[in-house]
Design a protein that fits this description.
Blueprint (H helix, E strand, L loop, with lengths): L7 E3 L1 H8 L3 H8 L3 H8 L7 H11 L3 H4 E3 L5
Antiparallel strand pairs: 1-2
InterPro entries: Cro/C1-type_HTH (IPR001387), Lambda_DNA-bd_dom_sf (IPR010982)
Keywords: DNA-binding
Pfam families: HTH_3
């Protein structure tokens, strides 16, 4: 079964690049695997609300400056 991509978008890669933080460093600070960071960055996995807040905190950003949500067109 193929899982559809999440509609949650993020700027994690941009923020990491701006601050010269590797995926491995971010993962270590969050207590998750590098694979989890990759999956979130690529939109294959939506983090829990708690993890999303932790990610925003690491970058000193507001949650909605890191994450967005694509509304379904009707």
């Amino acid at each position: 079964m193929v899982r559809p991509p999440t509609r949650v978008t993020n700027r994690i890669k941009d923020l990491r690049t701006e601050r010269a933080v590797t995926q491995a460093e971010l993962a270590a600070r969050l207590g998750v695997t590098r694979q989890t960071v990759i999956a979130i960055e690529q939109g294959r996995y939506s983090p829990t609300l708690e993890l999303a807040f932790q990610i925003a905190h690491v970058f000193g950003a507001r949650l909605d400056d890191v994450f967005g949500y694509l509304q379904e067109e009707r």
